[in-house]
Specification:
The complex is a heterodimer. By secondary structure, chain A is mainly alpha-helical. Chain A has helices spanning 6-27, 31-51, 55-80, 92-115, 132-141, 144-165. In chain A, 15% of the residues are buried. The chains are: A mainly alpha, B mainly alpha.
Chain lengths: 170, 351
């Protein structure tokens, strides 16, 4: 079809959708709509993982981000009853500062991407690396140390959030 | 390729129709069962023994006046029940219904798709399911509906954790596969998983009750406090979709419990029975008998769900949260630890 393979077509459509939904997150006035668009963005990203043959990552992405974290976001927004009317009006100065800060973040990201070398799909032997068994084996042998460090980081964040969430420490 | 698509399409249609039919007759069975427990007759006017009652109920739902509140968000208001129904139907995709059938030398699997992350897929769909309730409850622009939606989301997230850990233990004891067909086939060769995972099954069962919003965990639609909960503002078939999806969820979770813990379409001495009747592997009869066995288990589970609903009173909200976080979660972790030790001693986990 027009010189592109089906995979390329799917990639193009998914990329278009994820960027579009990402923009909708920012531009929609209602925070609940923003969260729902973010969920759609996550679905598109999960589609990208599927294209990379990383089924485990795709499903876990949906379970954790779309299924748990976004539900909590929605929960908090609904509980606080945020809507268009109660949205705080920001001054032009804050808007400009936020724009500059975001632009610099983009600049740094693009710069670091440009410097990094291209990691192909097959750098770990086969394109089957995304399957559960292979991923588990690699995670618990070759990358055991970073994996454990990440889990300790998460544990620390968990304890910290409980400490902050507590009303008073007895 | 074309025959493959047609065969999958037919399979999808059959699973769709069966899900709807079972859900429809579950509503009748629910009313009959409650009547039995309360010493009443139950619905008996429509057709013999009230067998046409689901049709009458469905027809009533369709012909009722449909009211969409002026202050609601119209699009999300319609999206809520549709999404809830969609996710309820999507879970049936990975369930293996019976043994493979070979027709004319070709082997057909009676399962829509056997993805190797089937269990994770189930969790993904279940975790998306709560959006239907949340969106519907929020879009109604009604305090009671909003409270119901918030309750539903916190309840589902809380019980998903214990459920997930119970399933991890199950996966470890069935050799680390995430494919539902392999889990079921393993129980054909050995014992049913309930023998190795009794505690895990109890945790899973309680969590399934909570995930399907069935009594005693039906806090999101608790009529004594919240009028109708998340579907307060809904009328006509949109209300019908919410109520109906609950029954489909019940059917699917019963199917999953029988597949995970009770061998699915297998039953004790099935091989001896098939050998005595002289059936070859892949014969249609084996598939049919397995299908019947599977549906018997499902029917028993659905009845237990109803039995619980008409026996136990509803929890208070703090009791619900305490049960989820302080009892089921530690129990499931304990179960996981015990499973790992037992499987290590059985030599199933190699280092």
């Amino acid at each position: 079809m027009l010189g592109y393979t089906i995979t390329q077509w799917i990639f193009g459509i998914l990329s278009f959708l994820s960027i579009m939904f990402g923009l909708m997150v920012v531009f929609s006035r209602n925070p609940v709509n923003s969260v729902l668009y973010l969920v759609l963005t996550f679905f598109c990203i999960a589609g990208h993982y599927l294209l990379l043959n990383a089924q485990f990552l795709a499903v876990v992405h949906i379970v954790v981000y779309a299924g748990a974290i976004m539900v909590l976001f929605l929960f908090v927004i609904m509980l606080m009853n945020l809507n268009q009317d109660s949205e705080p009006q920001k001054t032009w100065l804050t808007k400009i500062i936020a724009g500059v800060a975001g632009g610099m973040m983009l600049f740094v990201l693009v710069g670091s991407l440009k410097g990094s070398e291209q990691l192909g799909l097959n750098s770990y032997g086969s394109s089957q690396i995304g399957l559960v068994k292979n991923l588990g084996k690699v995670l618990f042998t070759e990358f055991l140390f970073p994996f454990e460090i990440a889990s300790i980081l998460l544990l620390a964040a968990l304890v910290g959030s409980i400490m902050i969430g507590k009303k008073e420490i007895k | 390729m074309l025959t493959f698509i047609i065969y999958k399409f037919i399979l999808c249609a059959i699973v769709f129709v069966i899900s709807l039919a079972v859900a429809a007759y579950s509503t009748l069975w629910e009313r009959k069962f409650s009547a039995l427990l309360q010493d009443r007759v139950g619905p008996d006017r429509a057709g013999p023994f009230g067998l046409l009652q689901p049709l009458a109920d469905g027809g009533k739902m369709f012909f009722k006046e449909e009211i969409i509140p002026n202050v609601s968000n119209r699009f999300l208001f319609v999206l809520g029940p549709s999404l809830f129904m969609l996710t309820a139907l999507m879970t049936g995709v990975v369930i293996p219904w019976c043994k493979d059938v070979s027709i004319g030398g070709k082997i057909y699997a009676i399962q829509i798709t056997d993805i190797n992350i089937g269990v994770l897929y189930l969790f993904g769909v279940v975790s998306i399911g709560v959006y239907g309730i949340m969106i519907g409850g929020w879009a109604s622009n009604n305090k009671y509906a909003l409270l119901g939606a918030i309750r539903a989301s916190s309840q589902m997230i809380s019980y998903e954790i214990a459920m997930g850990i119970a399933v991890i233990a199950l996966i470890i004891s069935s050799g680390g596969t995430l494919s539902l067909r392999e889990i079921v086939e393993q129980q054909d060769a050995g014992l049913a998983n309930i023998v190795w995972q009794p505690l895990g099954f109890i945790i899973f069962f309680v969590c399934a009750l909570a995930e399907t919003n069935r009594a005693p965990f039906d806090l999101p639609e608790c009529e004594a406090e919240l009028v109708g909960g998340y579907h307060t503002e809904y009328s006509s078939m949109k209300l019908g979709l919410f109520l109906f999806a609950e029954y489909i969820n019940m059917f699917v979770s019963s199917a999953i419990m029988s597949a995970f813990y009770f061998g699915g379409y297998n039953f004790p001495w099935s091989h001896e029975l098939y050998a005595a009747l002289g059936f070859q592997d892949g014969s249609v009869w084996i598939a049919l008998i397995g299908f019947l066995a599977f549906f018997t288990k499902i029917a028993i589970f659905i009845s237990v769900f109803m039995w619980i609903r008409w026996t136990l009173p509803r929890f208070r909200y703090d009791q619900l949260m305490n049960l989820g976080w302080k009892i089921l979660l530690p129990l499931s972790l304990l179960n996981l630890g015990i499973t790992v030790v037992v499987e290590f001693l059985r030599g199933h986990i190699t280092y």
